[in-house]
Amino acid sequence: MDETIAMLRARGIQPTQQRVAVLRHILKVMEHLSADEVLAQVRRECPMISRATVYNTLNLLVRKDLLRTQILKEGTVVFDRNVSPHHHFIDEASGRIYDIPWSALKVSGEKSLEGYEIREYQVVMRGRRRGQK
Amino acid sequence: MDETIAMLRARGIQPTQQRVAVLRHILKVMEHLSADEVLAQVRRECPMISRATVYNTLNLLVRKDLLRTQILKEGTVVFDRNVSPHHHFIDEASGRIYDIPWSALKVSGEKSLEGYEIREYQVVMRGRRRGQK
DNA sequence: GTTCGTGCAAACGGTTTGCAACAAT
DNA sequence: ATTGTTGCAAACCGTTTGCACGAAC
Questions:
Q1: Which residues in chain A have their CB less than 8 angstroms from residue B109's CB?
Q2: Mean pLDDT score of chain B, rounded to an integer?
Q3: I need a labelling partner for A93 at 20 to 30 A (CA). Which of A115, A116, B94, B101 fits?
Q4: Is the pLDDT of residue A132 over 60?
Q5: Strand segments (E) across B13-73
Q6: Which nucleotide C1' is nearest A60 CA?
Q7: Is the model's pTM score more than 0.90?
């Protein structure tokens, strides 16, 4: 049985060919893709998919908590398959975004902020990846 | 003597009427404005300013380190008059962005991230402002 | 009289929307 | 038959660009 289809069904989403292709692709690649990147890449395997369907599908998956959007790049939103709290590092040379595990960093002091009801937070780091790839 | 004009001169920028109006407005308001918001608000005092000039001016001021851009909202960049390290809180109800002083939060663990050369980082918090206004 | 700055309109890129054709139930 | 899904094209919105007019050195 197909895990991607099961995920969609579990959220009450009809597993159409296009939706399965989109979700399957995102779960496969490790990158944080923009909608247009998803479109281009999914089209290789599923040529008859339209821009509108990709956008519709991605927004649907976000609404159903299978994906999250992140505001990390100028001009475009990226979709994150990791829906649990974590931090981000953005390589300024390549633009590539890396997930940093929640446990790798510790933020303190946020409880003493008066008047701010924090629903969620993350550390956003920018710089350069060094060494390996 | 005018402080705004002095700031521009110090950076070798010709203090034209439009540039002074843009910078003066940004230094006056406390908000993190988008370019179009700057345009709309500056036009009240300086009606004969064009969209292109506002965008040109803002980009120039960023290039000369008088402003910083921040990627915090979907679909638009905001301009930050605070060019020193600090954190941000975004009120999800109003969209308003608040500066959080660098000293209010402490992040630890970032030195032990192997392979990541961090040039800068900040904590981005989202939630609701409580109480006063 | 060059250089620099401005205003306008067109172009651009990411995203959304309206709508007609088409499945699926 | 009704509802949900897709593809296409047009619309939209923030931003950039090309170009001609005008101001400043």
A1: 104-106
A2: 95
A3: B101
A4: no
A5: 68-73
A6: D5
A7: yes
Q: Cβ neighbours of residue B113 under 8 Å, at least 6 residues apart?
A: A89, A100, A104
B122: β partners: A124
CA A110, distance to chain mean position in Å, is: 26
Helical packing angle, B3-10 and B17-28, nearest 10°? 110
Per-residue model confidence as pLDDT tens digits over A50-108: 999 999 999 999 999 999 999 999 999 999 999 999 999 999 999 999 999 999 999 99
Contact B71 A71 (CB under 8 A): yes
For residue A115 the two structure tokens come to 């008047």
Q: Which nucleotide has the shortest C1'-to-CA distance from B55?
A: D15
Using the CB atom, is residue B51 less than 7 Å from strand C?
yes
- The b/e string for A84-104 (b: 16+ C-beta within 10 A; e otherwise) is eebbbbbbeeeeebbbbeeeb
- Four-way CATH pick for A3-80: 1.10.10.10, 3.40.140.10, 2.40.50.90, 3.30.70.270: 1.10.10.10
Domain ranges of chain A: 3-80, 86-127
- For B83, the token pair is 């060019």
Largest CA distance in chain B: 53
**Does strand C come within 7 Å of the CB of B22?**
no
